[in-house]
Amino acid sequence: MLGKGKKFNKLLPYLLVAPIVIWILVTIFVPLISVIKESFYSTGFIGTKGTFVGLDQYKATLTSSAYWTAWKKSLIWVLGNGLTQTVLAFSVALLLNKASRMTNFARNWMIIPWIIPTIVVAIFWQWIFNGSYGIFNHVLQSLHIIDKPINLLGDSFWSFPIVIFINTWHWFPFMAVIVLAGLSTISQDIYEAADVDGANKWQQFWRITFPSLGKITFALGLVGTLWSFNIFDTIYILTGGGPAGASTTVPVMIYQQAFEQFKIGQASATSIITAIFLSIFAFFFLKFAGPKEE
Amino acid sequence: MKSKKFLLLIALVIVLQTVLAACSSNSGGSEGGKDKNANTGGGDGKVTEITLWHMEEPPNRVKRFQEITDAFNKANPDIKVTAQVQSWGDAYSKFPASIMSGTGPDLLFTIPDYTTLIKELGVVQPVDDIIASLDSKHGFLDTALEPYKYEGQTWAVPIFGMVQVLWYRNDLLQAANVEPPKTWAELKAAAEKLTSGSQYGIALPASKSMATDQVLYSFLVSGGAKHVINGNNEITFDNEKTVAAYQMYSDLMKFSPPDSNTYQWGEPQALFNSGSVAMAIEKGQYLSTFESESGRPASDLGVVPMPVGEGGEEGSIYYSNGIMVLTDDAAKKEAITKFFEFLFEPETYGSFVNAEPGLFLPVTEDGSKAESFWNDPVISKYKDQVEVLIQASSKGALFGFTDGVATKIGQVAGPNYMAQTLENIIIAGKSVEESVKWGQAQMETAVK
Fold this sequence. Notes:
The complex is a heterodimer of chains A (294) and B (448). Chain A is mostly helical and 294 residues long. Helices cover 72% and strands 0% of the residues of chain A. Chain A has a domain at 64-262: Orthogonal Bundle (MetI-like fold), CATH 1.10.3720.10. Chain B has helices at 2-27, 59-75, 88-91, 95-100, 112-119, 128-138, 142-145, 170-175, 184-194, 210-222, 240-252, 266-274, 286-294, 330-343, 346-353, 365-369, 371-374, 377-381, 383-393, 409-413, 417-426, 432-447; strands at 48-54, 79-85, 107-110, 149-150, 153-154, 157-163, 165-169, 200-203, 277-282, 301-304, 318-325. In chain B, strands 2-1-3-11-6 form a 5-stranded mixed sheet. Chain B has a 4-stranded mixed sheet with strand order 8-9-7-10. In chain B, strands 4-5 form a two-stranded antiparallel sheet. The longest helix of chain B has 26 residues, at 2-27.
């Protein structure tokens, strides 16, 4: 009986986690294997059978100027969002890292943009910037700043920065909440000691606050970059990747290949190549950008 | 020990549940999880169940389609047609997977180029017998039926048509002393004259969208350049007449609001109803909302066929929506035949088509004359306008279905290459000739 009991004790944890492990393996690896397989076949419309084409589609993607243009847009997207969201999140978190009625109120309400569904965010910003009825143009015209409405989302220069702005507005509260949580773990004693030593606020930020948030900024840097890179819905709803491809990032391009051009095989190859590049980025980020233990 | 046994039992139950859940979804796959016995009708007292997916999401259309299927089910107790609302947004990405996994419908709404794509899955059933029977009784319009006839068979039953015309605001044209245009030259002159202050002469969509593709195609048809691709899937887009049509469209953009390159279906109609623009080229959806949204009488809504270009022909984009049969089950096919017979009876058909009065047009000769069609309050109020729409239907054309049937038209229509060609002109600033050449090259690559 004792032997059976020991066996049981060893087996029980595995049995308990088995369903979720199986579920995770199935939901990750079955689609992944399917995408890898499709990338070697010239499958067109989803559900049809393609012929084996080997590495042709990989070559086509790697030699396509449209793919590298989309990468350029994706890099601008990630950097634009990363910089603006980081600056905004740190600023807001530092402002709200004080106990008062006002900050308590603001802490609760600042997450509103983040909890609004993306589709709603996209639609109301579309209305704000609408060239015919939008409040943005109405205000500028009322103040005699412009004579005629500006078509920001339909302009090949302005559309992409505007989409970055909207996405930043949507996501920065999430980052701010994380930073705020990190700030609350820093002991006030350290700041008081720094005050005694004569350090000014700027020095306190760079010598105490920023290093103390190292682990958080590292995690946000990695997850946020990958997350931001893969954002598709906001861009697609607002501009569809246009006008004239002005906001076609890599995920938008992959969607277009799969569901507009009906080239599932090509889209699969593009996805695999992109996933490899992102994995390389994650590897180097983990290796070189991690917080240094002192 | 008891508690350990209990925990082990729970763990086993969870594992078994997971395995059983996976197995049960597989076993139901071939019939979409339905009870197979329920699909065998006939004289054994069992009910033949038919699932119909349509993508007409507005509540008024959903309600009307439901009323029609309810009436059919009541008249045929041995058949149950279940109408389920889906989205066109999922039609290209999710439906094929559902169909291939056996969880798709028995009947699926379609348009001609979508049929060519779904047909590649090998599940679409020919409907020649149904068509022959219905045609002899009700007489299909050739323009509605032809896009579904290829490879020696018919692949869908057309159910309603849509055609583009030139809508104009009578009050605004009269105020500017402008006659409704019949030619491109008159259209351009009218648009110019009607553009003043905050009012624009015409609203034209110029985004990368199907809405833009369709209006552009009306210009291609009326400019004599309707053959974009032929029956051998060879692209014939780059020619002088196509260039002239794009030139005309670009010229008219000067008299369209500055944010036209974000427009799809809704914006031109909203601007038209608000009086901010005087003309728009669209289908019949303008009828049902004109009075309520514009606050103007029905007589202020004017309509003429698409103006004709020099060397062009009368006509505009016209296409029929249809229903594909995806089941090869004999009992279901029999039930489906009965359903179509019921649907096309004039007393039913007019009511069905008027799910969206003016936008959906009859595709049968007796349907166009049916009392159930003309008695609708919107249709009877706009009788003259509806007659223009019906007349325009007989001169309509659809890209990919004019010079034989291009089975790869989906690859050209999906990425909106016609609209992208326009974007190259008005956004990227390329010449019309250069852009049309670019469009030709893109389309050639797409159909390879």
